[in-house]
Amino acid sequence: MTPRGQEPNESTDDAVWLDIVARLEEHPAGTAADPEQNSPRTDEFLTGPARTDIPLTDRERVDAVFENQPLRPMGPRDYEGATETNDDDDGRYVPPEPPPLGVGDPLLVLSWLAAAGGPVLLLVIAMFWRDAPLSVWLGILAAFVAGAGYLLTRLPRSRDDFDDGAEV
């Protein structure tokens, strides 16, 4: 809908559009209208005066933008905590060696296998070996009860009122 007294004028719209397109074609994206600014230059802000003759690659330009921000607020990843120092680590943090896999209480591992594997094994036997002897069923059930009972006895008996549950 057009305002009163104004009819859509196709010829002026086309002329305006063609003028805009012609001006954009004269100055490609990333260049300015001033011819002095169209000359190739290196970013002295990003590279300093030492690299005025070498053009920057895109990767170097991106790295320089993110490295040269003196007024940038500090973030959580900018924190440098205390480091353990050894003679050969150059001041970098060296985490302690993790314990080897498979080291633990063998009775605890067996009780987890019995508590978790017992119901699974009963399901597999019910599906594929329907005429299994009663001793197999009772043996798997006894292993499940023994494993779950041992795990329940290992639970803490009292709760610490000052502990919120998180450990670091």
Overall mean pLDDT stands at 75
Query: Describe the biggest sheet?
Result: none
Report the β-strand fraction as a percent range: under 5%
Question: What class do helices, strands and sheet pairing give?
Answer: mainly alpha
Number of H/I helices: 5
Low-confidence stretches: 38-47
Apparent shape? elongated
Indicate the multimeric state: single chain
Helical content (DSSP H or I, runs of 4+): 40-55%
End-to-end Cα distance, whole Å, is: 67 Å
**Strand segment tally:** 0
Descriptors:
elongated; 168 residues; single chain; mainly alpha; 5 helices
Short description:
By secondary structure, the protein is an all-alpha fold. The protein has helices at residues 10-26, 44-47, 58-67, 106-128, 134-153.
Give an account of the 3D structure.
The structure is a single chain. It contains five helices and no strands. The protein is mostly helical. Among the domains are: 12-68, no CATH class; 106-153, no CATH class. Helix 4 runs antiparallel to helix 5. The radius of gyration is 37 Å and the shape is elongated. Mean pLDDT is 75; it is low at 38-47.
